[in-house]
Amino acid sequence: MTIPDYEKLVETVRHVHKQHADDLCWMDIDLIFKAAGLSTPDRSVGCKESMLKNCQRFIDSMCAGGKWPSYAELEAKIAELESQIKELKADNVDLQYQIKNLN
Q1: Chain centroid, CA 93 distance in Å
Q2: Please, which of 9, 44, 57, 77 could form a disulfide with 35 given CB 3.0 to 4.6 Å?
Q3: Cβ distance 20 to 68 under 8 Å?
Q4: What is the tens place of the pLDDT at every residue in 77-90?
Q5: Distance CA 81, CA 98 (A)
Q6: pLDDT digits (tens, 9 = 90+) for 27-85
């Protein structure tokens, strides 16, 4: 085991701490292990169904009921806003045309 760089470790922990909802992942935890000078744990999976159940338990206990929207919710909101922008631009062009023709 190597002696970790304290500042790098704290920076990494802060980075992982900033993750929200479905941003948080087991790969973030590996960043902490690496910054601490530790190897990552053995991830040999015997039974994928058991692993998926554990993932579901992780999501239920760590992520459920949070204040952060999921990527799917954010992507839907982006699409909605892009549609509104397109409509507003079209309305603006139409309004400019009407103003131009008043003169």
Answers
A1: 36
A2: 9
A3: yes
A4: 999 999 999 999 98
A5: 25
A6: 888 999 999 988 888 878 788 898 888 888 877 776 656 666 777 888 899 999 999 99
